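Folding problem:
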Amino acid sequence: MMALICVVPHLSFGQSCCSGGAPLSGNLGLPFADEKQLQFSISYDLNKLNTLKNGTETLDDNTRTRSTYTALFQAGYNLNEHWSFEVLLPYVKQERIVSPVGFNTTIESTNGIGDIVLLSKYRFLNHYQVGIGVKFPTGSSDETTKRGILLNADMQPGSGAMDAIAFFSSEHNFKVRSSLSIYTTLTFRYTGENSSYLIDQTYKFGNESQIQVGVADQFLFFNQVLSPSLGFKYRRVSEDVNDGFDVPSTGGKWLFIRPGLSYLVTPNIHLMSTIDLPIYANLEGTQITPTFRWNTALLINLKL
């Protein structure tokens, strides 16, 4: 997976760092694997934010757009049948285009290594995993415009703060059809504070919770194994806090539908793709919100 007010002549709208930024929480949790197995995942995530909303109302305004392009490298190791560990490292590029009527178009962009996440997981009863993790502030949080002006928090590659993460997942196969499975993933991120935001301010992104549920199946198609899936993702983010005060036009609730398809290239190599389409959003104030999000990943399993 995912702040301040962007000031343009006569208008101010939140730029929704809650929906932009590196997609960390939504990409945590590599699939179940056997013990003594290494897992590597390389994925690309495109998040297009072209929809302006006030609460639940969609506004007729196309003067601003936002895009986040993220490459994610993920590695994991299954120590035994219970314990596994993984690391997630993003490289993120963010772009914001503002084209107010009667004014020149402004384009702002940043790119760089984002915040790294370490996660430890414990598997029990074969179908369940719980985990705890930490997000470290390895990404830059002091990027500037071409004129040397510090950019707001939502445009920075990193948050400048350490976060705590809780994780839970489960997967069950149906008895009537063993290839058909139902999955659930829950993540919660408690965000820390960046005490050097804009040099002398303290900034805290809103706490984030996500719930994903869905079903997946496997089919043979011309001797190739395909696995379509259909899921839903509910995401809730609390308002950001700047120097002890809630930041206007941050935070909200989102519900996405998530169709996906996985292709078994070899028994140890999977090619996967999903798309997130919003079907409901209720935002705090006026914000740019996701129009769609597309993710594709290559997963490699290596047995030691």
About this structure: The chain has a mean pLDDT of 89. DSSP finds no helices and 23 strands in the chain. The CA atoms of residues 130 and 204 lie 26 Å apart. The two ends are 30 Å apart (CA to CA).
